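Q: Hi! First time doing this. I have a protein sequence and I read that you can turn it into a structure. Is that right? Here it is:
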Amino acid sequence: MYYSTGIFSRQLHERERSQKRRIFSHGTARRLNTQQIKALPAVVHIKYVQNSKIQTVDVQSDPFEDFFGPLVSSEIPIKAMAALRNAKYKTPKREATGSGVIISQDGYIVTNNHVVNGADELTVTLNDNREYSARIIGTDPTTDLAVIKINGKNLPTLPIGDSDKLKVGEWVLAVGNPYN
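A: Yes, that's right. Below is the predicted 3D structure, encoded as structure tokens:
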């Protein structure tokens, strides 16, 4: 008996599509899309800026380096004569982005610690393009969580859910806006 792989794969594809239709036939996709639309106003874009800084580090000085450049030969015991000296260098300005979620109408936002750690300036952009300056309220590097605050009133929020009430196989939604 001869089977065409094209016909077999087409039948398999049709069977998978009908199963997917059954999964989403109860409006699950529509409900998820509705939840996404409801969540958008409370999801924020966070811009992180760490200004350049002058840092001082201890480096070994070589008394002959001024005349001959750095010596590569390990035969000359220069390290025995070397002393420590301070060298200053300027770190580059760093910018990064991330996202967070507004959890209170007066401007408290939950985000990740790695998004705000070391920031000199934080700018929060809402979904409607309003921008606010933010300050760090608290961080927890162990759980990678942080709370920041913007000065606003009647802001859109997302309630924090209870993960203990979730069941295996239940749909959950992760939202973010790191690219704005």
